[in-house]
Design brief:
Layout lengths: L12 H26 L9 H20 L3 H9 L5 H10 L4 H18 L16 E5 L8 H12 L5 E5 L5 H11 L7 E5 L3 H6 L3 E2 L15 H5 L14 E6 L2 E5 L12 H4 L1 H12 L12 E3 L7 H13 L24 H15 L15 H7 L3 E6 L3 H5 L10 E5 L7 E8 L5 H11 L2 H11 L6 H6 L8 H10 L9 H16 L9 H9 L3
Parallel strand pairs: 1-2, 1-3, 7-8
Antiparallel strand pairs: 3-10, 4-10, 5-10, 6-8, 6-9
Helix pairs in contact: 1-2, 1-3, 2-5, 12-13, 12-20, 20-21
């Protein structure tokens, strides 16, 4: 009998690793070449070569996407031929209808790129102006503030262009920034941290300058569209971006999770209406909640202070009732001659509901003084209410064990439209460090920085991918927050927003004590304020 032929040995572990590495590197190179070519700073529509590079660049990106699922199979096949790699590579190419033309195409394109296409030139650190980059901001002084962490990282990487934060109290930030832009203080700002509602004013008054949108990295890439819209000139219509978003904001619904039979609000009425009151009664009557419900006083811990939050609450109440007043793109609804803001039936109905909630202590608690100013948050944390509408950072405030015990709670997205909040980073018109200022702004808005801001501080990200990258444990509400941000609505777009909002929430405050009825002259006053008259 003849002996059985020996079984050929498979590739070694090192050969398998090499096979996977070669295939992965090849595919990654295809993606990089495609991205560089398609994003090269040339006007691709002006000549034939531009179209060729665009098509070939897109082809490389498509090949990367199509080939990624086959990394394992191609890597194992290549590993069997590592000892004879040159001849093996040819055999693989010749026997694969996809790889052979791609290999030929890659060779030709790389040669063409090397000859004709200049590489993109991202800003190098050495090209930044030297000296302090002064930022006007109301950042938290706590060392745990992730914005502080990012600034420390920037300063370590850019010792010749460090960031220096000029601390300003939150309620003074707008006026201090305006005064600096007008008069230039002893240490004028290079970068302003601005609420997104202030942008029309700062653009119209020429307090800030537009960004230099350097190709090939488009500043638009990856941003949530309505968030990036706050960085455009939505009042005057001038082109370009005038800032980049640092963080966004949208309302979330916080509910007690230790009470049996407590539903999550499915609409505004479930938070501040009759259904909320019925939920309170059922919870208190349930024997299983006898101990847990002893501290509960009202259905909700709403924010009623006569300031910007009252503008937010009134707009959300009117939108939830089907009223317009402000369209989705931030345009005020006015009469034909624009002499008065129009409050339609839905808006008036929403105000009446808001007034009832304000005056019914079983539906909502009234604000009470608190050392840290988080009145509704403190009330919810003490277990005095079932629900609370608040911004995302309230989650971390509630879970901060160092500030005392808290009631168990869950977080969900609001089922009705929220006001879009957030802060943007803009370059001062008077800065003598525009390149360094923009580089810092781009760093703060980068994907890595956005993930740190969300994970460590709970700041709502401005980029879509951050919500997917976030921890499913500490940020389990990430996708619901993303949905809330994407559907959130703009407040009125006007360069006189501060004045408009003061007139608006003052008028709403008076209406809350008058069954939700507005004073007759308020629509005219609001229209004049929005037009800066």
């Amino acid at each position: 009998m003849h002996a059985a032929p020996p079984v050929p040995e498979g590739p070694t572990r090192g050969q398998r690793v090499a096979g996977y590495a070669i295939v992965s590197t090849g595919l990654a190179t295809c993606e990089a070449v495609g991205w560089i070519v398609a994003g090269n700073p040339t006007d691709l529509a002006r000549d034939a070569w531009g179209w060729v590079t665009l098509i070939l660049g897109a082809g490389f990106s498509l090949f990367f996407a199509a080939g990624t699922p086959f990394i394992g199979a191609w890597g194992r096949k290549l590993a069997n031929h590592i000892p004879n790699l040159p001849s093996a590579a040819w055999e693989i190419l010749r026997g694969n209808v996809l790889l052979l033309p791609a290999g030929i195409l890659a060779t030709v394109l790389v040669l063409l790129i090397a000859i004709f296409v200049p590489p993109p030139a991202p800003m190098a650190t050495s090209s930044l102006e030297e000296g302090d980059i002064v930022v006007y901001s109301a950042f938290d002084e706590s060392p745990r503030d992730p914005r502080r962490i990012l600034i420390a990282q920037w300063n370590q990487a850019n010792p010749k262009s460090p960031v220096k934060v000029e601390e300003v109290r939150p309620e003074q930030l707008h006026d201090r920034s305006v005064n600096d832009a007008r008069d230039h203080s002893n240490e004028p700002a290079d970068v302003y941290v601005l609420d997104n509602i202030w942008l029309p004013e700062f653009i119209e008054a020429e307090y800030i300058k537009p960004l230099n949108e350097r190709p090939p990295t488009s500043p638009d890439t990856g941003y949530i569209p309505n968030v990036l819209d706050t960085c455009r000139d939505r009042y005057g219509g001038q082109p370009g971006l005038w800032c980049l978003p640092l963080n966004t904001d949208a309302g979330l619904m916080f509910s007690r999770s230790d009470l049996q039979g407590l539903p999550e609000p499915t609409n505004w009425d479930g938070y501040l209406g009759e259904p909320a009151l019925q939920a309170l009664l059922r919870v208190k009557e349930n024997p299983a909640n006898q101990l847990a419900a002893t501290s509960v006083q009202a259905a909700s811990a709403a924010q009623w202070s006569n300031e910007e939050i009252l503008t937010v609450n009134a707009l959300e109440a009117m939108w939830a009732a089907g009223g317009e007043v402000v369209t989705r793109d931030g345009r005020l609804v006015q009469n034909e001659d624009t002499s008065a803001v129009e409050f339609d039936d839905g808006a008036l109905d929403g105000l009446r509901k808001l007034a009832r909630a304000y005056n019914d202590r079983e539906i909502s608690l009234l604000d009470e003084p608190a050392p840290n100013g988080s009145r509704s948050t403190d009330a919810f944390k003490a277990g005095r209410a079932l629900y609370m509408r608040n911004w995302p950072v309230a989650n971390d405030v509630l879970r901060d064990l160092s500030s005392g015990s808290t009631m168990p709670f869950r977080v969900a997205g609001m089922k009705w439209d929220s006001v879009l909040g957030g802060q943007n980073l803009a370059i001062a018109e008077s800065t003598d460090q525009p390149r360094a200022a923009q580089a810092f702004i781009e760093f703060m808005a980068s994907p890595a920085s956005q993930l740190l801001l969300f994970e460590v501080g709970g700041f709502a990200p401005v980029r879509t991918e951050t919500y997917s990258d976030a921890s499913s444990v500490s940020r389990s509400y990430a996708q619901e927050l993303r949905t809330a941000v994407e559907r959130a609505r703009h407040r009125p777009v006007t360069p006189c927003y501060i004045r408009f909002s003061e007139e608006f929430h003052n008028g709403i405050a008076r209406a809350l004590n008058n069954n939700g009825n507005l004073e007759p002259d308020l629509p005219r006053i609001l229209s004049s304020a929005a037009k800066c008259q």
